[in-house]
Amino acid sequence: MNFLTEEERAAQDKTIQDLIDKKLPETDDLEARYPVLYPTTIDTEMGEKMKAAVIKDFESWNSGYDAWTAWTDDFYTEDLQYDYRDQVFDLAGLKTAMKDMVESEQRVQINNILISEDWAAIHFWNVVTDAEGNKDAFNHMQFLHFIQTDDGLKVDKCWAK
Asked: Could you tell me which residues come within 8 angstroms of residue 151 by beta carbon, excluding any fewer than 6 positions away?
């Protein structure tokens, strides 16, 4: 059963190809490098800090495994609970589990970051390159719970699809 018309399928295929072909701008301004396609209003200082941390997480992920694991110590609490694909990871387990993913994926587009009090919901796209060099784009949702620690604002809980 196909729920898309030929025109809708062609539009979907074009969107996927555009994501695969997307080149991130060369800039040190991370908000320019990772613009939010459909922004929502963020009206608190904490919300702005949460958004900045999410964008920094994208940059760290795209900078490779070593950069991302160094960043995770600043981004996540030591007692992190990260739910992903029916598994719950602590921080050390997350670093181990994500190694191959960080090396084969690039986060290319943030559709939305919705902030509500100490929660952030992020809808984004990444491009995965398989061992043969084939690429495909996938969309994801991530829900992050932030807490204020002595070391700054950090994520203590995360659910990702």
From this structure: 74
